[in-house]
Amino acid sequence: MHKALVALPALLLAGCQMAPPHVRPALPTAPAYAADDAGDVAAGVRASEIGWREFFADPRLEALVTAALARNRDLSVAVAQIEEARGQYRIQDADRLPTPGVDGSATRSRANSGLPGTGPVTGNRYAVGVGISGFELDFWGRVRNLSEAARAQYLATVEAERAFRLSLIRDVASAYLASREAEERIALAEATVKSRNDGLRIAQLRLNAGVTSALDFRQSESLLTQAETELAALKLAKAQSDNFLAVLVGGPMDAALPDGLPLDAQLKAPQLSAGLPSDLLVARPDILAAEERLRAARANIGAARAAFFPRISLTGNLGFASNALDNLVGDDGLAWSFGPTISLPIFDFARNQGNLTVARAREDIAVANYEKAVQGAFREVSDALAGRRHLAEQVAAQQRGTEAQRRIADLARVRYREGVANYLEVLDAERNLFSAEQALLQLRRQEVDNLVGLYVALGGGTFETR
After folding, report:
1. Residue 62, CA atoms < 13 Å, CB-side half-sphere
2. Percentage of the chain surpassing pLDDT 70?
3. 156: which residues sit within 8 A by CB, 6+ positions away?
4. Which residues are CB-neighbours of 123 under 8 A, at least 6 positions away?
5. Which one, of 339, 345, 346, lies nearest residue 135 by Cα?
6. Does the reported pTM lie above 0.70?
7. For FRET with 439, which of 160, 187, 424, 445 sits at 20 to 30 Å CA-CA?
8. Regarding predicted confidence, which is higher, 422 or 68?
9. In terms of Cα–Cα distance, which of 291, 300, 273, 314 is closest to 137?
């Protein structure tokens, strides 16, 4: 009998499956990306096969990302949440197995024997045994579904942490590129301020010599103030980008960082292949996390359904008991007991029905969140693919436009020196050239930032390749 007691819990671990089967919702997007980006979709390497160190060419950016992954406070919270979810899963999963305990006791008692003519009787009682208390026989899968829900929540937390790593890499890269853009535009503005200071000095000499008018001098002065105003604004933008970057990397960085690359040298990453929208379902960690939350919601439905059925628990004990310690262990002292407990609420005032309604509603929410994650990922990839094509066209056109504006400015200065044109023509040409040069640097930053966004949108690898 005692062998049956030990084997019974293991035989009853398997129960009914009342949770709805997990099936991915239909893809709520088009089966392929836009036709005008078809040439960008198939060629290249999958982003998930490229580690972030391989993707970034700038050694300074690589050092900043390394520091962020090691010191960012929000990432530390995400990692701790993984440990929390893992612990919750272990706690819940432990309920699927019986928890045997060893207990021993020694009792000395004095009591009236109850027999006429006899006095009180004093005696000893010793016992030792292995017992199981309140182990639920999971006929309906309630405990198993709760364990499955905890496991899915744990896996969702793991994927959410990976998604945050990707987001952190993207944020660090964007802040760094914004800082690099501001730095290059500051250098351009400083050179322009110096050039226009020289121009203003010459205009002052020409005014004093009576060669030019006060109007030309004031126009030259306005050119200088335009560049000085832009320079101050750019220094503010760089300071804000650097401050944000310090928060992302978890504190101030060592001054001995490697030199960074200019914006036009950042585009050295391998060509990325977008594949099909269905590929995102297994590449994007945020989608995988949403799917695991959907899996958990469906497992909780199974647990809620099982609550309508009787809950059967088993308590058992196997051991030895004797009045004498020297013959405690032996066939004569063998003792065992076991018995089930059945619990079924008759009047729960619709509590179980309410719990089932909540579980089903949460499944609907999880489905909607999953579909929303898929649609968001599709849009991000589509936007980045369009940006890869059209931003390159913009940069090329802006570069040609800047060269044209530079030639116009040179001609205007020549015409002014020869007395063919007034200074207003020079003023317009200089302003247009300065704006074109600033816009070119801005577009170069946007092009690189868009490439980083495409890498992250495609579920780029968070692993390190060197």
Report:
1. 17
2. 87
3. 85, 289, 290, 292, 293, 296
4. 108, 109, 323
5. 339
6. yes
7. 424
8. 68
9. 314
Q: What is the pLDDT of residue 325?
A: 63
User: Tokens 């008018």 correspond to what residue?
Assistant: 213
Distance CA 330, CA 159 (A): 55
Q: What is the mean pLDDT of residues 221-231?
A: 85
409, exposed or middle or buried, with CB in 10 Å at 0-12, 13-18, 19+?
buried
Residues 6 or more apart whose Cβ sits within 8 Å of residue 444: 181, 263, 264, 395
Buried/exposed code over 317-342 (b: 16+ C-beta within 10 A; e: otherwise): bbbbebeeeeebeeeebeebebeeee
In total, the chain counts a number of residues equal to 466
The pair of three-digit structure tokens given for residue 137, joined into one six-digit string: 């026989």
| Residue 8 CA to its chain's centroid (Å) | 44
Structure-token pair, residue 159: 């994927």
Rounded Cα–Cα distance for residues 385 and 177 (Å): 19
Spell out where 113-217 has E strands. 120-137
How far apart are the C-alpha atoms of 178 and 236, rounded to whole Å?
12
Q: Which one, of 167, 190, 177, 255, lies nearest residue 442 by Cα?
A: 177
pLDDT score at 80? 86
What is the phi/psi pair of residue 44, to 5°? 105, -165
Mean pLDDT of the chain: 83
Query: Which DSSP state fits 129?
Result: E
